[in-house]
Amino acid sequence: MTVTNGNLVAQIRQALDTARETGQPSPGRPTLVKLTGATDHAVRKVLAELATENADLDKPGGQPPNEGVGWPVSDPGAAANRQSDFGRSPVSASPGDGMAPTADRPVSGGDDVSTQAAAGGRLVAWAGFVFGSVMSIAANVLHVWLPAPHEPPGWVPGIAPQVGAAVWPVGLMLAVEALSRIPWPKGVLWGLARYGGAGAVAVGSPVISYGHLRGLLLAWQYDPVAAAVGPLVLDGLMVVCGFALLAMSRTSTGENEGDRR
Known about the structure:
Number of strands: 0
Distance between the termini: 49 Å
Order of helices and strands: HHHHHHHH
Radius of gyration: 33 Å
Shape: elongated
Strand content: under 5%
Largest sheet: none
Number of helices: 8
Low-confidence stretches: 65-110
């Protein structure tokens, strides 16, 4: 079925007005194509025209369209009502297609892209945090075994020294988790408890862990420079990924608070 441009404008405007008056979502382009029998291109052009009219009405002296585009002016009261309604028209053309954002089509893909990027970043941060934590724990435990070549055959370190060697990286890992996952109350004392405690762990644990890792690398015949830098790489990876998780957690919390407001 083919309709003239004026009739198509009237049909689309009537569909939008009906949806608004009944409190329904504005029909999108696919719905309007089915409703009017016009082509997608023709519906797109009409939606762009309506959006332009909407912008014109926002200017001083703006007037509603006349009967040439489907609004009779024989009834001044109706025209005035339509003009006031038209200022609230849900039609809003996007630069690319001139159609209204409706239930038939998402407003924007930006939110989906942001969500996917955040999920990817969180995955990378978690992978780095887990890898750094496991390697740091393993290196600290291996440090306990260093005296083995100088001990009698069959010597093994005790359970307590091995568990004790793993305490330091595990403590740092748990401190970062407590910072990022617990919704801490606001306040000076809470901030002191939160960051002061985590700061003590963040300073003490890497110092001890650094000594263990450096000693292990030297025992493995690494040169002094590599042995000095290696522990910083491993523990640094765990720390930076842990605080990346903390940063994402704070960002997510701020967005949720903004949504509630």
